[in-house]
Amino acid sequence: MSVFVIAEIGINHNGSPELARQLIDVAKDCGADAVKFQKRTVDLVYSRAFLDERRESPWGTTQRAQKEGLELSEDDYREIDAYCRSKGIEWFASAWDLQSYRFLQSFDLRLNKVASPMIAYEPLLRAIASDRRHTFISTGMSTLAEIDRAVEIFSAARCSFELMHCVSAYPLADRDANLRAIPALRARYGVDVGYSSHEVGLAVSCGATALGITSLERHLTLDRAMYGTDQAVSLDPASFHTLVQAVRSIERALGDGALGQPTRDEVSAAERLRAQHPTAGGDAN
Predict the structure, then answer these.
(1) 24, 143, 203, 219: which could join 8 in a potential S-S bond, CB 3.0 to 4.6 Å?
(2) Side-chain half-sphere of 223: how many Cα atoms within 13 Å?
């Protein structure tokens, strides 16, 4: 099975449909299978006290101005939907509240995503599971009890899903990646497991690929120096392209695990090399 590569645009579009289209172009050119956004209803996700706090941003001097500035409008999403279809790449989004989820339901999307902070929000989990679209469930900052409950909800609803190992650190230090959690999750729940990444380099994602992940999500940016909290943990276009090529190479290198089946090149080499050393052919007995 080929790893499903997701270019996480998230909020790196900075509220600009034009930037969103440019990021979609990059993701498609790099070989990603899908792009993903984040959708929030600001007044439902954040408290009024938090939104009133001071914060400097390109949109104003409060947290509210910054959060609202990062949100795309309904018309923007209609344009994104049409643009992705014209480019031949899937899109979906992680909803952070029920209103945002109902908004996303208005699009004919194949996929859903439960973001790590939302895995404990059971009303949202039940709504997504009832939709029965294939869902990626990130496990960052989660206890085993929370993961158990999410798996129970989706299994009971007979909704296709896969878990995504995730460590919610920005950036994620390699020493904290805990990639052995990938086979551990697979063994505990008997489901496909992907990897949602926040590290800076490529090595950890390549290691996750070698452990047999079914999906890989990496943040994508046009420039890591751009404004935004996720830009610094994102890959620029050249790095994202390199990652996708590495993932495909690792997939080919993994093979099927069959033992005792020399390749055609090995057979040829054995005939040549063993002919030079008669005892190597097993005649010593």
Answers:
(1) 219
(2) 5
pLDDT tens readout for residues 158-211: 999 999 999 999 999 999 999 999 999 999 999 999 999 999 999 999 999 999
Is 235 in a helix, a strand, or coil? Answer: strand
Residue 268 is encoded by which pair of tokens? 């040829």
Q: Which two tokens stand for residue 98?
A: 């029920």
Which among 223, 222, 194 is positioned nearest to 27, based on CA atoms? Answer: 222
- Whole-prediction pTM: 0.93
For residue 95, the one-letter residue type is A
Helix (H, G, I), strand (E, B) or coil at 263: coil
- Are 101 and 128 spatial neighbours (Cβ–Cβ below 8 Å)? yes
State which amino acid sits at residue 267. Answer: V
* Cis peptide bond N-terminal to 171, omega within 30: yes
| 111 alpha-carbon distance from chain centroid | 12
